[in-house]
Specification:
Layout: H1 2-27, H2 41-47, H3 61-68, H4 70-114, E1 116-117, E2 123-126, E3 132-134, H5 156-191, H6 200-212, H7 226-231
Antiparallel strand pairs: 1-2, 2-3
Helix pairs in contact: 1-4, 3-4, 4-5, 4-6, 5-6
């Protein structure tokens, strides 16, 4: 029994090393821009501490279930595979959206820098209807005579279009981060609970939640890391006989 437990512990650690390597690779994308991207990867990692399933204690309730109930064992393996696949997908989507958000924010910053200014430095934009607006939408058309126009300034429509892109991408990113930390983190907590393992019904519910609560793929560009994720051995986890 001890040999079998040691075998599974070693296999679980190898799986975790592979998955952590994937996370490290994805985390390397756009790290120089982290200060501008809201919650940082380090904060996400902190929230997920203690959620790593890397060992099974001999005689624990989970070990006894896996050893004596083949149907539960198969369902547990399926749930674990579903979780690891979803975690890889979430990490890839988040990395893609973080890079996209940084690019969009840079473009918005460029628009603001190129905008015309009032004498006090307030940035203003000319709208298609001829009105003059500040970045927060305040109409200052009565101050138009105080603006020195060069002729190539971005319009109000240019500004709000790019601003909306940034807001939409941030919303998508927040949705994936919430899914990663809450839905997937909660699932990993339950699968790692050896003293009070999830019931078969709860395993089915976990898989359903992983699928149902995942942000739609249309909420992100196809992740740059998706090909890498598909090649990492994080699925089809088989638990050795106990």
């Amino acid at each position: 029994m001890k040999d079998l437990l040691a075998e599974f512990a070693a296999k679980a650690r190898r799986w975790q090393d592979d998955f952590d390597a994937l996370q490290d690779e994805l985390a390397g994308q756009g790290t120089s821009r982290q200060a501008r991207l809201g919650r940082k990867r380090e904060e996400v990692a902190e929230l997920r501490k203690g959620r790593t399933f890397s060992d099974i204690t001999a005689g624990s309730a989970l070990q006894l279930l896996l050893a004596n109930d083949p149907e539960y064992r198969a369902l547990y393996e399926q749930t674990w595979d579903r979780l690891t696949e979803a975690e890889a997908k979430a990490d890839a989507a988040i990395a893609d959206l973080e890079a996209k958000l940084a690019e969009q924010q840079d473009a918005l910053d460029d628009i603001e820098r190129s905008a015309a200014s009032l004498p006090d430095g307030t940035k203003v934009f000319r709208a298609v209807d001829g009105s003059l607006k500040t970045v927060d939408g305040q109409d200052v058309s009565h101050l138009a005579d105080h603006v020195a126009w060069k002729g190539d300034e971005p319009s109000w429509e240019d500004y709000i279009t790019q601003r909306d892109r940034v807001v939409q991408t941030q919303d998508r990113l927040d949705a994936w981060r919430h899914y990663q930390v809450n839905t997937l983190g909660r699932a990993r907590d339950r699968l790692s609970d050896q003293d009070n393992p999830p019931s078969a019904k709860e395993l089915e519910d976990i898989m359903q939640d992983i699928e149902a609560e995942q942000p739609k793929r249309m909420d992100a560009e196809p992740p740059k890391g998706e090909t890498v994720a598909a090649n990492v051995g994080v699925s089809n986890t088989s638990i050795p006989a106990l």
